[in-house]
Every structure is written in C-alpha cells, then in structure tokens.
Amino acid sequence: MKNIKIIIKKGLALLLIIPVMILFELSLSSCSTNDLEIQQNFPFELNIMPIPKDIANGETVEIRLKIISKGNYAETKYYLRYFQFDGNGILRYNNEPPYIPNDSYELSEKEFRLYYTSTSTVSQSFDVWIYDSFGNERPTSFQFNTKD
C-alpha cells in the first residue's frame, strides 16, 4: 500500500514538472534572437487649417500645416516640394527666400506655416507634397479664385 502511494506521488510530481518545463522552454525560445527591432517607418497625416478661396494680386494667404505621425522616430526627416500649375505666385516659409517649384526643402518642425503671395490676376492652383525620409508622402492641393 505504501508503495502504491509513493508511485502515485511520483506520478503526480512528474505531471506537474512537465508543464513547468514546457513553459520554461517556450519562454527561452521566444528570446532566441539578440536583435532588437526598432520601428522607424511611421505613416503620417496632414492637418491643414481652412484657408480663403479667393485671393487678389499681391495678397498673401497664410497656410497652417501640421504633420501628425502615427509614431515617433527621432531620425525621421520631413521634406516639402511644391508644384504650381495654374497662375503665378510665391510660396515661402516665414521670412525665408521663396521656394522654387519642384525643388525639395527640409522641414525643421512638424507644425509650420507657409505663406502664398499671388502674383497673378487669374485663378491659381498648386500642389504641396510633404514626404519623409522613408518614402511616405502626402499631397495636398490648393486653389484660389481671383478677387475682383
């Protein structure tokens, strides 16, 4: 009778040890790589405040933009490029020299203001492309009618 109790106790102990060993092995095998994966590429959206629809020759319109990223990686750089395809105007950042169409410019902040000055008496249209160092890009179009 004593032998049967000892055999049962050893069997139960063995049944408890097996799940513990399986959990231990799973926890060790999940850490099999020494490489720490850091996500660097985060998509982003543009938030643009409303702007007037009409502009007169010589008038300047402020365009407020904000880049909203779905994550944060300190090394991500953002760039701006613009294309004017109707009318004429000047696009600039603060008091810096005007942007040249089709050239790329690095943005120093995620929240910024652009200033568009009309140099035309006809309707004007241009696209602004914001893109990052990982190839994510967001285009946005601006159209102004002439003021009489």
Determine the mean pLDDT. 84
Number of strands: 9
Span between termini: 109 Å
Helicity level:
10-25%
Describe this structure in words.
There is one protein chain. This protein has one helix and nine strands. The protein has a five-stranded mixed beta sheet, with no helix packed on it. It has a four-stranded antiparallel beta sheet with strand order 1-3-7-5, with no helix packed on it. The chain is rod-shaped, with a radius of gyration of 31 Å. The protein is of the alpha+beta class and 148 residues long. 11% of the residues are buried. The protein has one helix spanning 2-29, and strands at 44-48, 54-55, 60-69, 78-86, 89-93, 104-107, 111-118, 124-132, 137-146. Helices cover 19% and strands 42% of the residues.
How would you sum up this structure in a few lines?
With 148 residues, the chain is of the alpha+beta class. The chain is built from 1 helix and 9 strands; from the N terminus they run H-E-E-E-E-E-E-E-E-E. It has one helix at residues 2-29; strands spanning 44-48, 54-55, 60-69, 78-86, 89-93, 104-107, 111-118, 124-132, 137-146.
Helix and strand arrangement:
Layout: H1 2-29, E1 44-48, E2 54-55, E3 60-69, E4 78-86, E5 89-93, E6 104-107, E7 111-118, E8 124-132, E9 137-146
Parallel strand pairs: 2-9
Antiparallel strand pairs: 1-3, 3-7, 4-6, 4-8, 5-7, 8-9
How would you describe this structure in keywords?
single chain; alpha+beta; 5-stranded mixed sheet; rod-shaped
